[in-house]
Structures are given as C-alpha cells and as structure tokens.
C-alpha cells in the first residue's frame, strides 16, 4: 500500500503503531527436549502426589479433601487426575475487562502483555532520591504506567507505606480507577479487603453482579511460599478470585539454590508443581475460573546468597517454564527485572536479558518489564522510561515489516539513485520519511559535539525530563462523576467504619 | 552425570564453559515470508544486471569483463549466471588459522563468533577521557580483546593515529601477532601494505607459502560505498585476499534513508546486490576463495540524518540479511553497536537490542558486539567490559542446560527439603554450588546498604577496575623469539626503506 500524499494537502502523516494488542512474533525457544519437559511435568505430579503441598488455610484444605485428596493435618496430597481435570477446565484465553473496551487485555498463548515493575517497598528517582514508597509515589507511578501504551495492564506497583494498611486498598483502588483505565490489580490480603475492592470496581465500572462475575474486571498475583507451601492470604485469594470470576496469576517465586533446587530443571519442576496445585485449587473452587500459569525463577549468587536477575539461569528458567506452559496449554507469565542498585548499565543489561528470555519463551505476560531495581526492593522512575524505550522497540518488532514491491522499491528507490548518490530525495523516501522509523522517547542520536554542547546528559538524566513531563501533563481518563462521587462516599463510609485490616 | 565429590579431596571444581567454539542455539527468526526473500534476491540480481555496479579499480573491471560482464566505462553489469556461479564456488565453511589451533575460528551457518567494536578513530575511558586513538590505545585494546575468550577473532579495533600511515600496518600486525594469538585482521589499504602484512604473518606463524595459501591466516573487511560503488582499495582488497587465499568479509554499510532506501526491504536488497557483486569478484579472481557474506544496515534519524543503532529497523535488517544468507547458503556477518556518546543505559540497551537481532538472525560473526559508541566514532574500555558480560551470558546460553534425573533431582533435592525449608544444604546443591551458575565479571548483586557502604559505584565505574586489572596483568601468548626477532628485523628494514603508504 502506497502512502504517497499530496504536498501541502494537510499535515504530514504520523507514525501509528498499535502497542496494545501485541502478538509475540519471536520463535519460541526450547531449553530442554520435549521428553525431558514431559519428565519434569511427571515429576511435578509425583511431587504433588507423594510429597504433597502444605496448605495453611483450612478452607482450602477442605476443598482439596472434598475433591478426594489425601490430607494429613496441613499436608495435602494431590492426585494427578485432579490436576489433569483442573488443566482441562482452566480457560486457555482470558479477556480482562478494562475501563474502556479498547483497553481490554487478552491473555492467551501467543499474546504479549507488559507490566511495569511491581511490588516494590521503595521508590527512587534522580530528583528526590530513594525513599519508602508513599501515596504520592503510588499515584505518580500509576500515571507513568497509564502514559505508556506498551503497558497493557496495571501492576502491583510501589507500596504506599504512608497509607495505613487497613485503608490502603481503598487508596490503591481509587487511584487505579481514576488515574488510568487499564486493567487493574488487587492484592490478595484477605477476604474483607478483596470483597471491598470487587465492590468498588464493579460499581465504578457500572456493571451488574452477573456481568462482573462473567468477566474478570481485575486480577491478583499469587505467590506460593516455596518450597511447597500455600499460605493463608494466598490460598484465600485463589478461592475468593475464583468464586468471583476474577483472575489469579499464579507465580511461584523460586530462587535456584535457595528456596528452590539449584538446577533450572529442578527449580522449574518445583515451580510447576506449586503452580499446578494453585491452579487446581481455583478449578476445584469454580471450574472454568480465570487463572494464569506463571513462574518467576532466577538464581542466587552462591557466594552471598543474594538474588540475581537477567542471568543465564533466569533466561533458561523462563524457556523451561514456557515449554511447560505450552505442554499444559495455558497462558502464562514470566518476569524480567534487575538486581542493580541504580539505573545503570547493569540494570539495563539485566532487564533486557531477562526480557529476551521471556520473549523467546513465549510468555503471555511479562511482569517487571520496566523500572525494577534491587531485585524488586525499589522501582526507578528513570528506569521505567529507559526500559520502556526497549519495550516500545519490541512492540515495533511485533508490528513486523513488509517486503512488497513498494518496499523493495526497484522503481521508487533502487533505480532512482545513481552510484555513490543518496536516497534522501528518492520518491520512496519522500513517501515515508515521516512514518517509516520508530521515534525514540529518550535515546539521543546527536553527535558527540552537539551532545556535549547540550550538557553531556546521559540517558538517565534525560529520562528524568521525560517522567517529569508526563507527571506535569497529568493526563487522566474521563470518569463518570456520579460514579466517582459514589466511590468516594463508599470509601468514606468504610473508612469511618474502621476499614479492613489485611489478613495473613 | 553426577559431579559428587569427596569433601577435603582437593580443591573444589570450578565452572568451565567453552566460550570459543559457540554454536547459535537461538531459533532463526524470519521478518519476511520466503517468497519475498526470493523476490528481494531476484531484485538484487536485476539491480546488478540492469543498473550495474560502479567499480573504480580498472583491474577489477577487467576481471568482470573477461568473465563476460557488460562494461560501460566504470559501470559493470553483472549477469545472474555469473553471480550464481560465484555463490556455487564460495565456501560454505571457512576455518581461520590462529596462532594456536585451539584458537582457530570456523565460520559457517550455525557457528557464532563475536568481535569487539571496530574501526573507531577515537578511544575513551573514564580515567583518561575521550581522545584520538593512539598506539597505546591500539595495544591496550588488543590486550583487552585477547583477554576475553568470547571474542574469538580480532577486529579492526581503534585507529592508532599517532603512527604514520605508511608504517601503521607494521605496528598493528606486530601488536596482533605478539599480544594475542587470535585470528588477526588486516585493513585493505592497497596491495603494498597487504602484501607486507601477509609476509609478516606467514613468517611469524612459521608456515610455508603453500600452507599460507591453503588456509586463511588473516582477514579483512570490505565495505562497499553504497549505493552500488566499489572503490579502489576495497576492490583491490577483494582481489589481493582472494589471490592469497585469505578471507574477505564483505559488508555493505547501508543506512536506511541516507545511502540506502528508507525501507528494510529496499536497503537489504541493495546491500545484498552489493555483497553479491563483491563475492562474485572474489570468485572470479580465484574460485573457492574464502569469502563471508555480510551486512550492516540500520536507519538514520530522519530529523537530523544521524545514524541510529539498536533500533527496530536495525533488528529487522539483520533478520532479513540472515534470511538472504540462508537463501544463498553462505556464512555471514552482522553487527550490533550503539549511537550513544557514553557508556550509559542507552548504550547498553542499543547494543543488546542490536545483538539480539544478530542472534535471532543467525549471524555467524557479530561485529561491534562490545565497546562501540557514537556509531563507531569511539570505542569505550568500560563498554567492552560491560558488553562482554552480556556476551558471556549468551555464550553460557549456547552451552545449554540439562534436565536428566540428576538435574530434576526428585531424590537429591525435591524430596530432601520440607515445605518452607531451603535447599542450601540439599545434596544436589552441595554437589553443584561451585559450578552451577555463571559468575559475573562486573555485575554486582550486593544489596543497597552494602553497595552504598562500598562507595555506590555504578557498573561503568566497576568496569574501570576490570579493564585496569586486565592491562596490569598484561597476559600475552608465548612467542617464538627467533621469529619475533625476524619480525622486528623485517619491520626495521621496511621502515628504513620508506614503508608502504596506503592507497585509495
């Protein structure tokens, strides 16, 4: 298709690439032969049958027992038939309902969804330094995540530590509903908080109970306590979200050599067993409940015991998990991230290495794809911007390229320029110069002299300008003011009534 | 295979991974359907037949003419039969002879070879700043390239501008023969210099004329002058290296939107045509002469005209070139690199993005895989180190992982640890803790407190320590002192006789 345009006939076309509905174009990579993946799956089933899962929530133990599992105190021994039935009823495609249908997000094998770094107790930026996460940080982070189209869903973000724990879920839900229209997140911190969050979201979205139950309007992330333990709030979250038809993303967080076996094969087998146990609990609670398989497995540094990310082991663990996800046919999440203490070259290299592991593993959801430092202890505003540059470029690769006759351009380019000439004025160039290339948000192509004259500012310094401009612009989705008033009334009433403390 | 070992029975095993003989484990990615690749190939042949190549060296024009090409002044019109014959005689596997057989390097589809950043007029580091490349820089750079096993061949490196041009080839050859035993590089700057370099290398390696001619003992890189021009020293280099049985790596350097069409398909079609013309010249000179296909294509920033690297266009251009290389069945080189002006997050992200393009394109040789800044106007010592961390991790991925019963570890790990326990003392961990994980050269996993106490140094600052330690250690290969003396005598005689000026 030619994009030829008349000169002076209106503004030039601008580049428009859909960063929201991405399909993974990268060929999936295997780290192990298929028979070894089958052996790992079989060993995970054996682990659940013979070694069992420790389940700290009595209600969850009873669900397993009623379904026929052998139970000895808090140990649950889950048979492979029960797991196979759960895999059979778990949906293979899940569409999360956002504030606008255009922002709905579909999770299935082949789709590609990014989240910014999540769950950090601290925030950091070059203007204000590293500090415990605050309400201001949470709202700013939400605005940054809203700004970049390549983040298709919200993440657990940064912890607003200055908001009392029994009121924090009101604050985070209000922020996610008013500052963005992307698919929102809820922490599974006990039934009272979760139920209130469901109510706020249902009413603010203006949907009926039935419609809310029919489509996930929010999601949580479930971390097992490796090895082989499902704690009270996590088990409760799996049950509560499944009952309500809302989405759980199950993610054992397994560090090879510490809380998981030292080998990729061993750690991913453990992670797989734990994920299957959690998925089984959701399907026993409500067959067909939306649940996403997942893993987050990297290695520790064996000298210090410190977690490492973006390592060869992390990369291979993502590949193995992807093979197991395809083995059971479910959408799944993986994670990038960095262990670095600031947004430096290490942070960039680790995050991108972990990202390519996820991409080549065919991950449906990539969490911590931007901004995550210190193995998750802080999120960096500058790193959100610089990592987003990489994610945008990956999104551009998802869009692909064409090689039709117009693009090969024998007439419009190749034969239009003499030897040693230039293509600046070739017809093909004139047609496309405004739309052909990705325009960076923070990368700078100025030469050394110009760059020096402009202050010799590195990418992190320039990223500061970018996030400050985004926060200054403060672009928010349109909201229904009646529903906003009702939301604020609800929060005021519940706050007055004492809020809802987290459970553990 | 169990690596169980007796306690106290000698030193613990250390991790040993072969970084020299790498095979690319990443599934090749296609950017265009096969029929479009065939169309691009066909358009490249049509370009050579109908539009022709401008060839500035009369000897080269005569070679083409004698083979049947139509010639009009300096324009050579190359028929597709002649190209097909060249592709048929070009070797599909080439082994470059290094100073030791263990350092020989094999170039074929499937092998993976890295070179540090090359051809830079400037060097830069955090201790001494940015400066014109010097003899000292050239020697230091050679030592750094020698140190890291993951660089399997030498590169054009940094230009020693303080060495007179008519003596520079003595200096660079002496440095490459004495400071490293890796496969060395020669600039094609005219027959006199090239012939002398061949002599120095043949004699220092202690091989006969016949043995030298039978195996490439050195190589050059041939850049066409896009569009469609082959200048005097490049054409001469192709002829001289082919006659001598030495290796040419043919690399049109095509910037989309400037010296090449603005589209990936157009630019790579032009690059392909130029590479085929150069390959044809080598095979007309000497059928079977070692030659490597190549491309280096990225886009300019259309606002400023400045070159950009590590962009989506760069990535896709590598993919397209890889498809064309497989289409004609020849080993090929591609390139990573960065446009950034210092070793910052942009530099890291650009280089790694470009690298993944090369890896997924199945490139045999990845040039500029470390250290390249400013689009090649400088090389950074710190960036060599930080990029090398990434290359090492890629080499680790090439080694793969196992998922045998020992690695899955039902007995030695999974069943040996209770729920909520840890694997630090599991038998599997005890067997492997010293050898399981890659140990970084510059990445730091210390937590924020410890890292702050140690001076809060970023990756570039730590990389300074690394390169300084390598230069201080000054590890060199053993040399034959008689041959070294002869080399120095040769250089003294030739210098006395006036050296050999470069030709252009």
UniProtKB/TrEMBL annotation, chains A, B:
EC code: 2.1.1.-
GO molecular function: methyltransferase activity
UniProt-annotated stretches for the region Disordered: 1-20
A Gene Ontology biological process term: methylation
Keyword Methyltransferase in annotation: yes
Keyword Translocase among UniProt keywords: no
Keyword list, A-Z: Methyltransferase, Transferase
Similarity annotation: Belongs to the trimethylamine methyltransferase family.
Protein name per Swiss-Prot or TrEMBL: Methyltransferase
């Amino acid at each position: 298709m030619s994009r030829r345009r008349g000169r002076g006939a209106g503004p030039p076309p601008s580049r428009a690439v859909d960063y929201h509905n991405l399909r993974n174009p990268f060929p999936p990579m295997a780290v192990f032969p298929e028979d070894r993946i089958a052996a790992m799956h079989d060993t995970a089933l054996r682990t659940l049958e013979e070694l069992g899962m420790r389940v700290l929530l009595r209600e969850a133990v009873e669900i397993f027992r009623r379904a026929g599992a052998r139970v000895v105190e808090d140990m649950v021994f889950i048979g492979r038939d029960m797991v196979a039935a759960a895999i059979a009823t778990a949906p293979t495609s899940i569409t999360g309902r956002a504030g606008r249908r255009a922002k709905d997000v579909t999770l299935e094998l082949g789709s590609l969804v990014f989240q910014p770094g999540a769950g950090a107790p601290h925030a950091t930026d070059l203007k204000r330094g590293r500090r415990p996460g605050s309400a201001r940080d949470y709202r700013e982070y939400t605005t940054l995540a809203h700004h970049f189209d390549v983040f298709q869903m919200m993440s657990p973000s940064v912890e607003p530590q200055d908001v009392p724990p029994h009121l924090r879920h009101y604050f985070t839900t209000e922020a996610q509903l008013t500052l963005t229209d992307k698919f929102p997140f809820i922490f599974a911190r006990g039934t009272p908080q979760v139920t209130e969050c469901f109510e706020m979201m249902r009413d603010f979205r203006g949907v009926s109970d039935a419609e809310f139950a029919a489509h996930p309007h929010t999601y949580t992330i479930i971390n097992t306590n490796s090895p082989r333990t499902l704690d009270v709030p996590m088990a409760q979250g799996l049950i509560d979200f499944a009952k309500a038809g809302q989405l759980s993303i199950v993610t054992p967080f397994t560090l090879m050599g510490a809380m998981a076996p030292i080998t990729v094969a061993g750690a991913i087998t453990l992670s797989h067993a734990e994920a299957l146990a959690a998925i089984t609990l959701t399907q026993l609670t409500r067959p067909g409940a939306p649940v996403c398989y997942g893993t987050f497995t990297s290695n520790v540094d064996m000298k210090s015991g410190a977690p490492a990310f973006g390592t060869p082991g992390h990369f291979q663990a993502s590949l193995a998990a992807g093979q197991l996800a395809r083995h059971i046919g479910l959408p799944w999440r993986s994670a990038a991230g960095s262990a670095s203490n600031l947004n430096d070259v290490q942070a960039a290299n680790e995050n991108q290495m972990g990202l390519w592991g996820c991409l080549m593993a065919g991950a449906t959801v990539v969490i911590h794809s931007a901004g995550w430092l210190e193995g998750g202890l802080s999120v960096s505003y500058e790193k959100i911007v610089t990592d987003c540059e990489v994610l945008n470029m990956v999104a551009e690769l998802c869009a692909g390229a064409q090689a039709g006759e117009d693009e090969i351009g024998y007439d419009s380019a190749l034969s239009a320029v003499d030897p040693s000439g230039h293509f600046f004025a070739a017809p093909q160039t004139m047609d496309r110069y405004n739309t052909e290339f990705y325009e960076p948000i923070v990368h700078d192509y100025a030469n050394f002299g110009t760059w020096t004259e402009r202050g010799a500012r590195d990418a992190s310094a320039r990223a500061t300008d970018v996030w400050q401009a985004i926060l200054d612009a403060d672009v928010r989705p349109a909201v229904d003011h009646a529903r906003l008033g009702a939301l604020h009334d609800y929060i005021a009433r519940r706050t007055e009534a004492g809020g809802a403390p987290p459970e553990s």
